[in-house]
């Protein structure tokens, strides 16, 4: 009796010698590509070139096709999981980013805070330039008796790195406004700014931003001599994270009865009952939203008597 030779293209189920299924045919690969779109085996069979929808169920009964489908589904699930984690991490970075890494608003000393006798105070470069400009202007005056010395006013040394001049009266005023921990910086308050200082805007170098701040930063808009820092919406990121984590539960109020066939009193009672029941059910979830849906067709409308 002749010896049977095993067909190498025939798949052996688990427990046999050969555990590796044969390769898919081009038609079978096309069928799986179509099947992964919406998992409709009948439509996938037709779009793959098979004559009837019944071929979809027959193809899935073939072990090698079934195993290839499971492998593709597993790879897709892993890919979706990685993408979801990546997006969630970016949402978290965006939500937790500190906008002060991009721009800050400081209250710095006014020009009279630390000047001598609270006169206008130059910074060192301004004082040098003003002194030189005054000197050259005086040299142009031929009559030396008419030349005047330079008035340094409050002197030099102005810097935005010092706090405003704030005395005990300023601290008492802050305490009345609900800030009892206000710290004084002098034994008296600047008579020009009353210790409040002047605003100073700082734009930080975006090349050194942290990952979260870099994600928050969207760009800069220049209009003439003004600049506007553009940022992404952190509130939207928080909302997306909350939805992803299931913290929001949306509940819809659906009226089964036709509102057009109800009186005003019946309609009001039905709405009140539905809202009360949903409110009782949402005690443990919180933050529910109620939406009123009209029946299919035209919006309900009744002529008032």
**Poorly predicted residue ranges:** 5-12, 14-18, 282-305
Structural class: mainly alpha
* Percentage of β-strand residues: 5-15%
Compute the number of structural domains.
Answer: 3
* Secondary structure: number of strands: 6
Largest sheet: 2 strands, antiparallel
Describe what you observe in this structure.
The protein has 305 residues and is mostly helical. It is elongated. The longest helix has 34 residues, at 63-96. The protein folds into three domains: 26-95, Arc Repressor Mutant, subunit A (Orthogonal Bundle); 103-203, no CATH class; 249-293. The strands form three sheets. It has a two-stranded antiparallel sheet with strand order 1-2. Strands 3-4 form a two-stranded antiparallel ribbon. A two-stranded parallel ribbon has the order 5-6. The model is unreliable at 5-12, 14-18 and 282-305 (pLDDT under 50). The chain starts with 25 loop residues before the first helix and ends in a 12-residue tail after the last strand. The chain has helices at residues 26-38, 41-47, 54-60, 63-96, 124-139, 168-176, 211-216, 234-244, 264-281; strands at residues 103-108, 198-203, 217-223, 226-231, 253-254, 292-293.
């Amino acid at each position: 009796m002749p010896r049977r030779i095993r067909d190498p293209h025939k798949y052996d189920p688990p427990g046999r010698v050969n555990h590796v299924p044969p390769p898919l045919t081009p038609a079978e690969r096309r069928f799986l590509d179509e099947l992964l779109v919406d998992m409709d085996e009948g439509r996938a069979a037709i779009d793959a070139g098979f004559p009837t929808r019944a071929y979809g169920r027959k193809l899935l009964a073939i072990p090698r096709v079934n195993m290839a489908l499971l492998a593709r589904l597993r790879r897709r699930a892993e890919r979706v999981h990685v993408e979801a984690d990546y997006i969630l991490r970016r949402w978290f970075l965006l939500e937790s980013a500190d906008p002060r890494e991009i721009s800050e608003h400081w209250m710095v000393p006014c020009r009279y805070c630390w000047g001598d006798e609270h006169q206008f105070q130059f910074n060192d470069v301004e004082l040098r330039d003003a002194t030189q400009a005054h000197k050259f202007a005086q040299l142009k005056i031929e009559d030396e008796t008419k030349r005047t010395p330079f008035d340094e006013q409050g002197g030099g040394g102005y810097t935005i790195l010092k706090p405003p001049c704030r005395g005990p009266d300023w601290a008492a005023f802050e305490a009345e406004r609900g800030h009892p921990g206000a710290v004084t910086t002098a034994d008296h308050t600047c008579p020009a700014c009353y210790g409040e200082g002047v605003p100073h805007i700082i734009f930080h170098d975006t090349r050194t931003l942290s990952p979260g701040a870099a994600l928050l930063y969207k760009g800069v808009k220049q209009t003439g001599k003004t600049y506007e820092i553009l940022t992404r919406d952190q509130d939207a990121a928080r909302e997306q994270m909350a939805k992803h984590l299931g913290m929001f539960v949306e509940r819809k109020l659906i009226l089964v009865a036709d509102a057009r066939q109800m009186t005003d009193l019946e309609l009001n009672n039905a709405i009140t009952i539905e809202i009360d029941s949903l409110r009782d059910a949402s005690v443990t979830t919180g933050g529910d939203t109620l939406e009123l849906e009209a029946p299919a067709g035209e919006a309900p409308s009744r002529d008032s008597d």
